[in-house]
Amino acid sequence: MKSKLLALSCIFTLLFSMISTHQIVFANKFIETDTVTMTNPLTGESGAYTPVNLMMGGEDVITDVPGILYTSGTSTRTLVPISFIVERMGADIEWKQATREITINTTNKEIVLQIDNPYAYVNGKKTKLPDGIAPILLLFNGNNKTFVPVKFISDQLGLDVNWIGDTRTVAINKPVQTLTNVYLDYMSQFPEIRLKVTGDVDANSFVISGSDVGEQDKIVVDLENTKFDLQDTSMVKNGVGTYKVGDGIFGIDRVEISQNSPNPPTTRITVFLDEKRGHDVYYDEASHEMVIRLINTVNEVTHEKIYGTDTIVIDTSEKPNYNINLVGDQIFVDVFNSYLKIDEGMSTIVPVNQGKIEAYGYSQLDTSHYGANDVYTSRDVITRVAVNLTESITYDEVYIEDDGTQIKVFVSENPLNNFDYVRLNDAKSNMSIRLFESASFNKTYDAASRMITLTLSSDVTDLNKFEFGVDDNIIESFDIIDKGSQYVVKIKLAEDTTYVDNSTTDQIVFAFTNRAILDSEYSNTLIVIDTGHGGHDSGATGTLAKEKDIALKASLELERQLKQLGFKVYMTRDDDTYVELYDRADIANDLNADLFVSIHINAHTNSEASGVEVLHASQSTSGGMGLADDIQNYLVKDLNAIDRGIVYRPNLVVLRETKMPSVLAELGFISNASDQSKLMTPSYIEKAAGAIVKGIKAYLK
Length: 701
Ligand SMILES: [Zn+2]
Fold this sequence. Notes:
Layout lengths: L1 H18 L16 E4 L6 E11 L2 E2 L6 E6 L2 E7 H8 L2 E5 L4 E5 L4 E5 L4 E4 L2 E4 L7 E5 L2 E7 H7 L3 E5 L4 E5 L3 E9 L6 E6 L5 E7 L7 E7 L2 E3 L7 E2 L2 E5 L7 E11 L2 E9 L6 E5 L4 E5 L2 E11 L2 E8 L5 E6 L2 E6 L2 E3 L7 E7 L2 E8 L18 E7 L9 E5 L2 E5 L8 E5 L4 E7 L7 E5 L4 E7 L8 E4 L5 E8 L3 E8 L3 E5 L5 E8 H4 L7 E6 L15 H18 L3 E4 L9 H10 L4 E8 L9 E5 L7 H16 L3 E6 L4 H5 L4 E8 L3 H7 L2 H19 L1
Parallel strand pairs: 2-14, 15-19, 26-30, 45-46, 45-47, 47-50, 48-49
Antiparallel strand pairs: 1-2, 2-3, 2-4, 4-5, 5-12, 6-7, 7-8, 8-9, 9-10, 11-12, 13-14, 15-16, 16-25, 17-18, 18-23, 20-21, 21-22, 22-23, 24-25, 26-27, 27-35, 28-29, 29-33, 31-32, 32-33, 34-35, 36-37, 37-44, 38-39, 39-42, 40-41, 41-42, 43-44, 48-50
Helix pairs in contact: 5-10, 7-10
Bound molecules: zinc ion.
């Protein structure tokens, strides 16, 4: 069996080396590379092509084959894989092998193109392609791919194409429109910010949770290929339009309208919030208005073990209103005034099979047919989370905790019982145990192991036994042991945490402070960690792991270590979602971050390639290059990795668009067996994060 596998992989290696040498051809890695080598199967000629970023309606387009710059004579044109046209432009494609003809059909057009033919037929009319650059076939990753000129086809389909040279990006948009008015409609079911536009445009929105790092929360909506020319000119000052809401109505402070980019023109709507609010954006065809509706959203539902208890965690955008119902062996959590954002609202069932939880699911409740006798009206917008249990339970056996924007459904009685733990900020927290009667307890503290041990009689309180790794840089873990007549509570403090015993007659209270975080010289230094890829963009794929997953683990570990030193940290993503490249940079710029560190894993067709490298877009030693240098030095040393050096990549979107020193660290090769297995161990990830921290500290000195 083993020899067979080996033989197979030899064939693959041979194939790869025939197609291209030393080039990354792994899906979705193009933005991190300067050239991609492909071979024309008809001529046998191979060439190194510059990959381009593709954007459509303000969204990054992730394809398994990159768009490329293709030069013929003195002309250069962008060619894109035909799959891009099919998947993103909604056209029908037909391929005739004998004549190598491509027919693109839309409702009112038939475009016929032919490989290597500089002429096309549009509704039967012969038309010369721009610069005479014809569609070509290129062998990529072992498959023949058809590349077609993107500008020509976009023009034919009535779409605008803009070239953003700085970041080698092709942006395709609906025709340009103008924003003329903005107002708040507070009479509708949900408050709506309505933006009058001359026609349909694409909108791309993201959230800046500024309050997490002491700034203001914002919803940012970009109207793609849109200019603004407000009728009410009194709103405009210094090129920025302001619509004041004020006094915390609906949690909105004000709405600002600004020109975000001239090419293509993007109008940015920034909603400044007084509290966290959810939102969705849609186009109201009847009134020609883009609408930002303030409505809660359910963003993630997960199964977690919290306080040793199987828990379903529902993550929302704003403080949720909800209702819990128990029906037989099912728990229903209805989140009011919310729409389901996960997978664009698709109903989903996730198997769990742990403890009493068989599975959980979520869906948008269809209330359209609801009448007078129903609990909800047809106007209610409700996300329902259902938890399927192995047996029927009573209300006493479910415990709900809502914490900011989360609902936690514990499938047990209150797992904390009389125990409580509350984090006050990054450096301080409190633990308490309620007592029935005034009672004495025994306390020991072992400085070497940073362990507080409390012993108290089981007559004076009720506790549940659990082990819980808190790992919040204040407390490492709690462990409650039930010894029958006694409870033993073990509290393991994080490094640099001190405690004060504030116990009274009816409760045990400990106040914890991490002195290092509290007194940190970095408490005003904000670092944005940019976790590469995510969601539908896996990044490079290894035999056992995906880049996006390893990058997330490394980023979360980096966050933990930086916070331990008292840094302020903001993550562009901390779960498996995709964030647009320009948005990642915009978030860091908006927060006025001090440093920007993007975390990625490398890949290469040559599976021998191994080691670490750090990319930068600024050649200043006090800027990105200096930071890259410092981080690279520690990565090489601490990981004992091959030094691939720092790499100047001026066109990378996230590095080029960020205004602060920024770097992109490639922590190893997922395409190399040894690197991949290391990248999958927590100890390597911990060391890699530690090395980046050392690099950051060295740079800040
Ligand atoms: Zn990457």
